[in-house]
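tool=predict chain=A
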Amino acid sequence: MNNFKQLALNLCLKDAATFVNFFVGANKQLVKVLSSLNTNDETRFVYVWGKQGTGKTHLLSALCQLFGEYGKTTAYLPLEEIMQLDSQMLEDLEILDLLCIDDLSLIAGNPVWEESFFHCFNKIMEHGKQIVITANAAPLALPLVLPDLKSRMASGLIFEAQALSDAEKTEGLKLRAELRGLELNDVVAQFLLHHYARDTKSLFATLEQLDKAALAAQRKLTIPFVKNVLG
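tool=predict ok
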């Protein structure tokens, strides 16, 4: 694998994402399968689909972190970024122990990328390696133009990532805050949930912003402080 490709792959990994700071909610079976994938060679292909904000990207990054801890080679490829490069980025990836592809939906209808990914997927299967793919729709619902690719995507272990309820989002915020050493009570958590962007990605990004501000100001998280920081 050339140095340019390796650099591009390494830059994509989200270091803060782990299985520990992922609030499971209704995704217990999905998390159980993914978190044991590094010791389960029989499960070679997992397809995870769901709406934006259901934690799919977090899970892929956490999976790469876990494999890395066991000395295994991985790559996390967010197609939103990788598609700006040449589809040759998908060549030779069968040398990895695990490949994580984020948002396969983005290549649907693009014959060049579909063909490249089709060959990439087949090589990974032929070499007995593992691959986890996310998308915004179930395999057969993806508008892929390559019929064989659609059938391949339907051949794996398929999960629908479930969104968190409001109560679970509150608990998820409190868990993430606790792991940061930040005290977040129910009142402030509820205020964040009802006055700012409600998807989990935005909520956790807001919490990170507040964490930095609270640390710099040596303040606890209160509603007046939150209003001041977030405007």
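The beta strands are 45-49, 74-78, 98-102, 130-135, 157-160. Residues 2-8 have pLDDT under 50 and may be disordered.
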